[in-house]
Each structure stands twice: as structure tokens, then as C-alpha cells.
């Protein structure tokens, strides 16, 4: 968090800016800047991605980081005696208190009162008791520890919920799963320091429990099986730790005595140690020394003897926050802290009072909760198949490729692995039932064993036969195997020896079967080759006879072909004569049809010329009308300009005059452009007419082009009408200008306002006129382009038709020449 980007730190809390590890007492300073070649900034990015995966992003991520800031800020609070009351204390770091109050969202006085004072019930009244600086600091640290524990528990729950299937209870102890469960238990290592406190007791207690589970799974269950089979067992007293567990968690064990001491109003470490030593003074696993201090005691664990300092046991075992501190935390504005501690407060409110309250207080201690979780874990392990992995730290310096043998051997001894290996040497790791052994290995014996004998006797005969060459000097095979009531047990490597002999026997049998199979296959191949040789000979003889038959057939076919050829020649001569007569008839008929076609063509040409004269006359009349209309409109525009020249001009009229002049010039230019387009169109039409005149067989296409030309003329007339409408709009604009001047003389007071309105109207109308001109010219250009494309298409079709007619004519001539030939 401290190496996160500055923007994120500022969004969490302004006090995080420019902070380092030295800024918080709980963190301190360190010289380590990288872990596994990764900096804290890189680790922060990975943690942020991981938290987002389990649902911590956005505001929830900010709330989590603020809760961590509250924990860090609690560690920065310093306490000193109250100058007005020596028994009380105050928070001397007011700046840090102010930062804490801003984070928690409450007044600094409320936080200070909750940490430095306690409400104690005396009879039926509550008395406010002051706390010393040391007690206040312990209370502050306890609150930070509680908040951090709740955050850790919340993260654990979120991870379990995120990684579990939607229809699976995240509680691993639930038995009604439809899924399998693979769990990894990372156990504490056995701890023994110069000063061992409450935490070391809990960790070593968990190790004792797991060691007991390990012994039961690997040795006790095996020992019980050996006893059932009637085999001499081994001694597990060196690694069995039931007595230590009884000392720790028995009815009057360490945990029970510590819980009773926590319930007493003035419970302390000396009283706890005294009771423990009094009750277990004769216990082998509780070591009592005369030089021990009143708060010290030693327990002989399975790994080593550990001396514990019990001075803080009572305080650490009490897991409940004082009522006034809990009420203060519940007022915190942080969503996560508020919701978690509200739940704690509601559960505490449901606890019973009186004698039942004492029982509830016992169940709320750290030891009781820890023991309950350990017992639940053991019950879950009973339903699981366990694999044990022992992790050994090779050296104390965390250096790669380096092994400190003293450190390694000490860990192996503490884990009980040395004793376990010694016991494992006396065990029989491999076993098979009698029936399974007899069915698997009876193939090894060469003796004729009576089938009526008991299976155990049959197995013994086979084993004696197999191990007779390894008989030791004692004359007993017990060092290799043991025959039990229902199973045979083997020392390491002995079952593999018998299995190898069985594999060798099977390999020899397989070789015999393989040889027999190869002989059968070779014989079968020989018979197949023999049948093949006979078949080849038969095929050769048949081929020879077929060749003779084919030769005879060839002679017969030659005679038949000569006869058929003579007949075919006579038939062909007759068909040629008929063909020549047909060609002569076709030539005469085509001459008559060609003469008739020429007469009809001349008549059609005469009709086409008449239609052209009529269409040209209509075009001329329409063009003349357009020219007259344009001349009239130009005359009207010139008159309007002359009238405007005689009127007294102001700026607006001058601008309008300029604009009208500009529009007239533009109109003149556009007319010239339209004239050029029409001239080009006329030339194209003339070319098209020439092409139509040349092509006699494309009358339908010519007629379509005439229709298109008529449509173009109609569209031109429409464009002329639109131009006239635009001229009318221009005249109406002039009328509006005259009305404006008339209104100007009558309403001088509103001149500026009306002038602005008229100016807006004029600009709008002018824009409309410009847009209308542009649209009309654009439409005209588009139409001209479309007509050009149609002309190109018609021209292409005409060329294609001419080429097709030429090809057809050439084909007819060629056919005619062939017929003549």
C-alpha cells in the first residue's frame, strides 16, 4: 500500500501522501527492498489484481485500504500520564489522534475516552475507571489487533466464496457435498525460543494434534492391523503423544485451567502456574524445576521440552474487547469495520448473564476457540485421505544450494522423523490377501499342491519354495515376510522380488506362445503362396487362349467392316445430292425475302425522317421560348437595377444591389454552362442519330433513345420553370425591400430592431436561393451525367449489335460457301 501510486494513496487517505515504513510504528524500518526480485510496487499491482478477482474493487477496495490505515494509525498513538491525575493517562500524540479521528469519522475526544478509560460495574452502578499509560497502550494495541483479525477473516471468507462453486457450501466440514474436495493444510512449525509466550503454546498444541494424527494414520492403525493378523508388533511409545494432549486439552488440562483463571476477577499468571503444577505434579510431561519463577512452567513435547512464560497468558486468552471500546468502534464510518463490529456487538448482546455467562465467557476465550477449530479439523481429516509432506529448511540464512546438516538434523528430530524411520524399518509395508496371493503367484510353484488344503497353507508352501535359497542362519523367513491370519506381509523389496519372478515366468511362457504363433503364421503364408502359384499358372493359360480368340475375332470384324463401308458410301452419296437441292432452294427463298425487306426498310426510313422533322420543330419552339423568357427576365433585372440606382441608397440596399448583381452574373454564367451542356448534348444526339441511321436492325434501340431525348427535353423545360420560379422569388424579394423602406419611414423608433429582423430574413432567403440554385444545378449535372451514361451504354450496345450482326453475317456466308462447295 505504501508503494502504491500517489493518486491511489490520495484517494484512500490524504495522510498517506509521502509516507514510508518509518512513518508507522507497527512497520518500522527495513533494508529489504525486493522479495524474489520484485519490488513493493510490482507486488502492489499483483495484490490489486488479486483483490479485484475476489470482489474488492472500487469503493470496497478503498474501504479495505482505509481500514488498514486505521490499524497503522492506532500504532502511532503514544500515551503519557495525565498531569492532572497520576492514576490516569492521556494521548500525547494529538496530531496522530486527529488523523485517526478523521479516518474513523468521529471526534478525537470520543476515541481518547474509549481507550484511556473503562466503565466498571460495581453492584448495580457503572463507575468510570481511569487507566494507566501502559494499560491504555495495551488497549489500543488490542483494538488494532482485533480490527486486523476481522479484516483477515473477511478476506478468507471472500476467497472461499470466490473459489467455491455456486452450489457448494464453502464450509469444508460439510458432509453433503456433490463435489470432491482437495485441501492443503499448511501447519505451523514447532517453535521453541528463549522466551515462549501464549502464541508458542497454541502453535505447539496444534503440532501435537497433527503429530498424533500422523502417528495414528501411519503407525497405530498399522499396529492394530498386525495385532489382528497375529504378527508381533513394534513399539510406538517413543512417538505416541496422547499423554501430552491429555495434559494440554484434558478436562483439567492447561487450556481448562487457563480459562478458569480468565473468568476469575483477579486471575493472574502465578495462580495459573501454581494450579497447573499442583494438579500435574506427578506428570512426566510437565517439567517442574525448583529454579523456575512463579510464572514459568515447562512441557515435554514430542519434539523437545519447552519453557513457557505465562505472564501474559490471561490477557492474551481473553478475546473480548471492553464494552466502551466496542461501542466506540461501532460508530466508525468505515463500512467494513462498522459492519464487522456491529455483528460482534449483536452476538455479545445475546450472551447469557450470571452463571451461564461464565460458561459463555469460557467458550469465548482464544484457547477454547483454537481448540474447537483444531478438533473440527481433526474430524474432517478422519473423512479424508491424507498425504503428509515434511518441509525442511536447509539453512538459517535462506541461501540457495546450501545445507546446514546440524539445522537439518535438528528439524528431522523435532518432527519425529528419525524415530518414525526406525519404526518403519520394523514394519512390513507391502501386503496381499491370501486369496489374491494364491491367484497371482500359484504359477511360480513346480510342486503339486493339494487343492483341498487351506489357503494359508498353500501360500506358506509357495513362499517357502520361493525363499528357500535366501534362508538365513536362523532357519526362519520372518526377516522377509510374515503370514498372518488373512494377509501376507512383506519386507521392503520382497514383494517386488516375487513379482519379478512372476514376470520372468510370464515372459518365458509368452515366448513359447509367440514361437507357436510365428510357426502357424509361416505355414499359413506358405499355403497362401502355393495357392497363388497355381492361380498364376491358370491365368497364363487363360491369357494365351484369349489371345487366339481375339485374333480370330479381328479377321471376322475386318470382313464385316468392308461390307458395311460399301453400304455407307452409297448412303452418303444420296445425302449429298439431297443437300445440294436444299441449298439451291434456300438461296432462291432468301433472294425473295431480301427484296421484301429492302422495300419495308425504305418505308421505315421515310417515317423516321418525318418523325425527326417534327421533333426538331418542337425542340426549336421550346428553345425559342426559353431564350425569350430569359431575355425578358434580364430586362426586368436591368430595370430593377436602374430603379435601385435612382433611389437613395443605404448600406443594406447597396449590399442587396451588389448581391442582385452577383446573382445575375452567376445566373448568366450558369446559363452559359447550361448552353454548353446543351450544345454537347446536341452534338451527342447528332452522333447518336448518325449511329441510328447506320444501324438498320436497331430500330427499337433508336426509338428508346428518342424517348429518352424527349424526357430530357421535358426535364429541361421543368428546369426552365424552376428558374422562372426563382426569378419570381427574386421579384418578391424586391417587393419586400420596397415594403421595408415604406415601413422605415412610418416606424422610425423600431428601425434597428426591424432592420435586424429583415437582415436575418434576407440572409435566410439568400441562403435558400443559393441552395436552390445549387440543388437545381446539381440535379441538372446529375441528369446530364445520367444521359451521358445512357448514351455510352446505347453506343456500346450498338457496337455489340453491329459486331454480332457481322459475326452472324460472316457465319451465314461461310455456311453458304460450304453448302455451295
Written account of the structure:
This protein is mainly α and 821 residues long. It has helices spanning 6-12, 40-53, 59-75, 94-104, 108-116, 133-163, 198-229, 242-249, 254-263, 269-279, 313-317, 323-330, 335-349, 354-363, 366-382, 405-414, 417-425, 434-441, 455-466, 494-646, 651-694, 699-746, 751-820, and strands at residues 34-35, 38-39, 79-82, 85-91, 117-122, 125-130, 286-287, 296-300, 305-309, 430-433, 481-483, 487-490. The chain has a 3-stranded antiparallel β-sheet. The chain is flat. It starts with 5 loop residues before the first helix and ends with a helix. Residues 354-361 have low confidence and may be disordered.
Summarize the structure.
The chain is mainly α. Helix content is 68%, strand content 6%.
Helix and strand arrangement:
Layout: H1 6-12, E1 34-35, E2 38-39, H2 40-53, H3 59-75, E3 79-82, E4 85-91, H4 94-104, H5 108-116, E5 117-122, E6 125-130, H6 133-163, H7 198-229, H8 242-249, H9 254-263, H10 269-279, E7 286-287, E8 296-300, E9 305-309, H11 313-317, H12 323-330, H13 335-349, H14 354-363, H15 366-382, H16 405-414, H17 417-425, E10 430-433, H18 434-441, H19 455-466, E11 481-483, E12 487-490, H20 494-646, H21 651-694, H22 699-746, H23 751-820
Antiparallel strand pairs: 1-2, 3-4, 5-6, 7-8, 8-9, 10-12, 11-12
Helix pairs in contact: 3-4, 3-6, 7-8, 7-15, 9-10, 9-14, 12-13, 18-19, 20-21, 20-22, 21-22, 21-23, 22-23
Amino acid at each position: 500500500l505504501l508503494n502504491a501510486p500517489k493518486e491511489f494513496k490520495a484517494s484512500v487517505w490524504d495522510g498517506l501522501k509521502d509516507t514510508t515504513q518509518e512513518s508507522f510504528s507497527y512497520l518500522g524500518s527495513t533494508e529489504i527492498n525486493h522479495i524474489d526480485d520484485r519490488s513493493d510496487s510490482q507486488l502492489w499491482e499483483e495484490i490489486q489484481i488479486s483483490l479485484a478477482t475476489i470482489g474488492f474493487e472500487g469503493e470496497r477496495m478503498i474501504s479495505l485500504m482505509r481500514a488498514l490505515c486505521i490499524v497503522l494509525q492506532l500504532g502511532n498513538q503514544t500515551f503519557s500520564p495525565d498531569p492532572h491525575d497520576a492514576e490516569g493517562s492521556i494521548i500525547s500524540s494529538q496530531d496522530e489522534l486527529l488523523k485517526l479521528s478523521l479516518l474513523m469519522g468521529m471526534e478525537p475526544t470520543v476515541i481518547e475516552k474509549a481507550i484511556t478509560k473503562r466503565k466498571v460495574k460495581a453492584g448495580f452502578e457503572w463507575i468510570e475507571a481511569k487507566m494507566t499509560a501502559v494499560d491504555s497502550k495495551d488497549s489500543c494495541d488490542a483494538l488494532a489487533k482485533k480490527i486486523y483479525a476481522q479484516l483477515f477473516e473477511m478476506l478468507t471468507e471472500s476467497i472461499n466464496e470466490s473459489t467455491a462453486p455456486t452450489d457448494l457450501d464453502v464450509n469444508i466440514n460439510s458432509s453433503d457435498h456433490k463435489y470432491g474436495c482437495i485441501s492443503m493444510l499448511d501447519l505451523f512449525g514447532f517453535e521453541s525460543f528463549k522466551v515462549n509466550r501464549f502464541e508458542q503454546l497454541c502453535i505447539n498444541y496444534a503440532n501435537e494434534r497433527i503429530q498424533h494424527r500422523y502417528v495414528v494414520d501411519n503407525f497405530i492403525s498399522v499396529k492394530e492391523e498386525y495385532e489382528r493378523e497375529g504378527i508381533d508388533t513394534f513399539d510406538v511409545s517413543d512417538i505416541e503423544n496422547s499423554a501430552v494432549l491429555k495434559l494440554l486439552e484434558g478436562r483439567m488440562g492447561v487450556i481448562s485451567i487457563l480459562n478458569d483463571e480468565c473468568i476469575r476477577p483477579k486471575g493472574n499468571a502465578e495462580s495459573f502456574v501454581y494450579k497447573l503444577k499442583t494438579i500435574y505434579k506427578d506428570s512426566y510431561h510437565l517439567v517442574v524445576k525448583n529454579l523456575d519463577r512463579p510464572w514459568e512452567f515447562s512441557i515435554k513435547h514430542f519434539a523437545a521440552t519447552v519453557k513457557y512464560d505465562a505472564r501474559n497468558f490471561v490477557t492474551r486468552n481473553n478475546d473480548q474487547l471492553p464494552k466502551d471500546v466496542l461501542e466506540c468502534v461501532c460508530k466508525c464510518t468505515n463500512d467494513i469495520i462498522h459492519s464487522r463490529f456491529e455483528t460482534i456487538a449483536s452476538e455479545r448482546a445475546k450472551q447469557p448473564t450470571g452463571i451461564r455467562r461464565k460458561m459463555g465467557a469460557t467458550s469465548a476465550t482464544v484457547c477454547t476457540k483454537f481448540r474447537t477449530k483444531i478438533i473440527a479439523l481433526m474430524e474432517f481429516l478422519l473423512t479424508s485421505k491424507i498425504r503428509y509432506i515434511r518441509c525442511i529448511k536447509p539453512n538459517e540464512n535462506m541461501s540457495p544450494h546450501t545445507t546446514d546438516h546440524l539445522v537439518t538434523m535438528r528439524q528431522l528430530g523435532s518432527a519425529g522423523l528419525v524415530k518414525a524411520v526406525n519404526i518403519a524399518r520394523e514394519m512390513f509395508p507391502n501386503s496381499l490377501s491370501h486369496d489374491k496371493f494364491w491367484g497371482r503367484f500359484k504359477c511360480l510353484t513346480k510342486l503339486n499342491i493339494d487343492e483341498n488344503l487351506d489357503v494359508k497353507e498353500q501360500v506358506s508352501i509357495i513362499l517357502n519354495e520361493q525363499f528357500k535359497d535366501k534362508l538365513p542362519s536362523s532357519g526362519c523367513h520372518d526377516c522377509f515376510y510374515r503370514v498372518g491370519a488373512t494377509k501376507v506381509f512383506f519386507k521392503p523389496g520382497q514383494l517386488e522380488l516375487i513379482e519379478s519372478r512372476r514376470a520372468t515366468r510370464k515372459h518365458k511362457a509368452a515366448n513359447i506362445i509367440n514361437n507357436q504363433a510365428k510357426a502357424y503364421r509361416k505355414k499359413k503364408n506358405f499355403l497362401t503362396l502355393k495357392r497363388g502359384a497355381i492361380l498364376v499358372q491358370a491365368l497364363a493359360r487363360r491369357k494365351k487362349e484369349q489371345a487366339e480368340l481375339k485374333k480370330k475375332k479381328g479377321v471376322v470384324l475386318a470382313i464385316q467392316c468392308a461390307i458395311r463401308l460399301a453400304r455407307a458410301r452409297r448412303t452418303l452419296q444420296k445425302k449429298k445430292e439431297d443437300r445440294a437441292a436444299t441449298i439451291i432452294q434456300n438461296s432462291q427463298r432468301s433472294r425473295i425475302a431480301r427484296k421484301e425487306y429492302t422495300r419495308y426498310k425504305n418505308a421505315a426510313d421515310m417515317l423516321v425522317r418525318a418523325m425527326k422533322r417534327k421533333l426538331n420543330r418542337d425542340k426549336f419552339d421550346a428553345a425559342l421560348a426559353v431564350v425569350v423568357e430569359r431575355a425578358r427576365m434580364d430586362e426586368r433585372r436591368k430595370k430593377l437595377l436602374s430603379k435601385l440606382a435612382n433611389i437613395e441608397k443605404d448600406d443594406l440596399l447597396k449590399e442587396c444591389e451588389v448581391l442582385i448583381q452577383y446573382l445575375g452574373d452567376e445566373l448568366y454564367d450558369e446559363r452559359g454552362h447550361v448552353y454548353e451542356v446543351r450544345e454537347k448534348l446536341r452534338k451527342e444526339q447528332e452522333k447518336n442519330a448518325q449511329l441510328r441511321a447506320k444501324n438498320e436492325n436497331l430500330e427499337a434501340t433508336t426509338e428508346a433513345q428518342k424517348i429518352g431525348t424527349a424526357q430530357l427535353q421535358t426535364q429541361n423545360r421543368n428546369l426552365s420553370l424552376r428558374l422562372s420560379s426563382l426569378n419570381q422569388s427574386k421579384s418578391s424579394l424586391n417587393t419586400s425591400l420596397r415594403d421595408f423602406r415604406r415601413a422605415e419611414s412610418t416606424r422610425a423608433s423600431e428601425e434597428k430592431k426591424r432592420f435586424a429582423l429583415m437582415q436575418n430574413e434576407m440572409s435566410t432567403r439568400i441562403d435558400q436561393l443559393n441552395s436552390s440554385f445549387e440543388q437545381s444545378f446539381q440535379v441538372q449535372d446529375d441528369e446530364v451525367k445520367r444521359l451521358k451514361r445512357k448514351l455510352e451504354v446505347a453506343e456500346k450496345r450498338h457496337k455489340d449489335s453491329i459486331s454480332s450482326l457481322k459475326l452472324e453475317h460472316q457465319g451465314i456466308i461461310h455456311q453458304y460457301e460450304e453448302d455451295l462447295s
